[in-house]
Fold this sequence. Notes:
This protein has two domains: 2-169 and 347-361, Glycogen Phosphorylase B (Rossmann fold, 3-Layer(aba) Sandwich); 179-334, Rossmann fold, CATH 3.40.50.2000. Helix content is 48%, strand content 14%. It has helices at 10-25, 42-52, 68-86, 98-109, 129-140, 149-157, 171-185, 188-191, 207-210, 213-227, 238-246, 250-254, 267-275, 286-294, 309-312, 323-334, 351-361, and strands at residues 2-7, 30-35, 59-60, 90-94, 114-117, 143-146, 165-167, 200-202, 232-235, 259-262, 279-282, 298-300, 316-318. The strands form two sheets. The protein has a seven-stranded parallel beta sheet with strand order 3-2-1-4-5-6-7, sandwiched between helices. Helix 1 (10-25) runs parallel beside helix 2 and helix 4 (98-109) runs parallel beside helix 5 (129-140). It starts with a strand and ends with a helix. Residues 9-11, 38-41, 44-45, 65, 96-98, 129-130, 205, 237-239 line the site of uridine-diphosphate-N-acetylglucosamine (UD1). Uridine-diphosphate-N-acetylglucosamine (UD1) binds next to helix 1, helix 2, helix 5 and helix 11.
Amino acid sequence: MKVVLVAGARPNFMKIAPLADALDRADGFTTFLVHTGQHYDEELSRVFFSELGIPRPDLDLGVGSGSHARQTAEIMIRFEPVIEQERPDLVLVVGDVNSTLACAVTAVKLGVPVAHVEAGLRSFDECMPEEINRRLTDSISRWLFASEPSGMENLAREGAPPERCHFVGNVMIDTLEKHRRRAAEMKAPDRFGVVPGQYCLMTLHRPSNVDHPEILRGILKAVAGIAGQVPVLFPIHPRTRSALKGCNLLDYAGGIRGLTLLKPLGYLDFLGLMADAMAVLTDSGGIQEETTVLGVPCLTLRENTERPITIDQGTNCLTGSDPHQIACGFDRILRGGAEGRGSPELWDGMAASRIVEILSSREV
Ligand code: UD1
């Protein structure tokens, strides 16, 4: 079976790594790795390939940034001849970024079945571009691989044929389990000048948080309150950096005592810092899952999550972007009220092998 693997943006790379590895080890598969180029910076892309041992892409479509329509369309235009030339038996896409949807649509229209890894997650918030990408990708995928039970429930409710849906666990946690010891050995807290267990780590990049100056200012105020109590490390996504610059908040952020602004970090440094943090503040999807497995309290600066198991069973707590709620969430953590119940079912480092086993059986 010839499989085209698609990776486009930062959160895809840690999901593609174990899948590429498992497919390369299994009998009967050949792979062709396409990087769409949605993310292209060293810090958002190349560092993950070298650190995670992802094979060099067979092709880089080099689409770069753009509006949603432009970026999605450009990926489709550049991906179509790849499918025509490679004639794969399957296109495998992960997550919920524009590259995921664009490549899924292109493949299906050329008669090539699609497998979607991380299927069924729903925030029920149509303002999120990722929610649109998730729903549309799932609706046309032949293979739907869910990471948590809510994914299976959502797919069933939407009428996905049961024989297409498989609960396999979380491929991103495969990568975490593989690298957590190496990350710990790199002693990231020492190198970033913080003491294990006595600092917070923050990431922020959702348009709903960073594209509105008043919301961004409120979040920074809340963070200033936290940084007055424990140091906060803040690796800044390029979207957020330009938003801060655009509304003259970069200097304000740089002047907050206890808050350290950093460039985006590689996988191992970030994992090392996350594992030893007292708490993580984020609006990312994947970090909610990683902190759950690491047992580190997580405040998610969103009103909803498509990953409810991180709340029901994990260490995650939704605060939205309201400064008061963020402060209350942090107080709760200080009082020790954010314990999780361990790793969710099948988040055990074996998800990619389960997927490959199912694909080998060609059940559908
Ligand atoms: C994308 C994903 C989001 C994911 C996030 C992780 C979509 C709709 N969004 O959002 O789900 O959580 O990646 O980072 O697919 N830029 C650079 N260098 C790069 C790439 C981007 O500087 O290598 C800048 C550009 O100014 C660009 C902006 O970041 O306009 C946003 O990039 P884009 O790919 O549109 O979306 P993200 O916000 O990164």
